[in-house]
Amino acid sequence: TMINLEDFCLSLVEELQITTNNHIIAFCSQAQSPNVCLDKKLLRHILTNLISNAIKYSPQGGTVHFELVCDRTTVVFYIQDQGIGIPEVDQTQLFHSFFRASNVGTISGTGLGLAIVKKSVDLHSGKIAVESKLGVGTKFTLTLPLNN
Ligand code: ATP
Ligand code: MG
Q1: What residues does ligand 1 touch, defined as CB less than 6 Å away?
Q2: CA angle, 59 as apex, 58 and 62 as ends, to 5°?
């Protein structure tokens, strides 16, 4: 079905913002927001995982930046936090089932969220990449092809 990307993101942010009092989810996108043909449920699942992680692994008061950029053929989502970061040695294993980085401390989780996200992204011929600096923050880049 056709969805308006900006409307979709704004309502997801509104929904996720309710789950946290202590973080700000800051959304930004380009001027035009195209209507695209994308799987709503899939997109919601992937973005919810990434934004929830950004919240969970950030200190109270942190800002989560969520950005949407797209052209005719591709949509790119950036989810960036100012949280605990991920040790470099752990970054290649993030998408493996049950993997948790060595610096999670008392933050609980099963280590399955990103493994499932990665499978969904692969199934839709997308890409997901991570850049992170320990103690500084993490940025996930999700790229999905648009089928016009
Ligand atoms: P859950 O299955 O409940 O999501 P989880 O959050 O531990 O548990 P994943 O979402 O798969 O599992 O993430 C895997 C690991 O990657 C996390 O345990 C954490 O070490 C690291 N991680 C993921 N996102 C971030 C982030 N934004 N900042 C820091 N570390 C992160
Ligand atoms: Mg998670």
Answers
A1: 53-54, 57, 81, 83-86, 94, 99-101, 104, 109-115, 138
A2: 75
CB atoms within 10 A of CB 119: 12
- Element (H or E) spanning 36, and its range? strand 35-37
Closest CA to 83 of 111, 114, 51, 119: 51
Name the pTM for this structure: 0.97
Does ipTM come in above 0.95? yes
- Ligand minimally distant from the alpha carbon of residue 79: 1
Where would I find the H helices in 89-137?
113-123
Question: Which ranges of the chain have pLDDT less than 70?
Answer: 148
Ligand 2 centroid from CA 116, angstroms: 10
Per-residue model confidence (pLDDT) at position 21:
86
- The structure tokens 């949280």 sit at 83
Rounded Cα distance between 145 and 110, Å, is: 29
pLDDT digits (tens, 9 = 90+) for 71-85: 889 999 999 999 999
The answer to whether residues 35 and 7 touch, using CB atoms and an 8 Å cutoff, is no
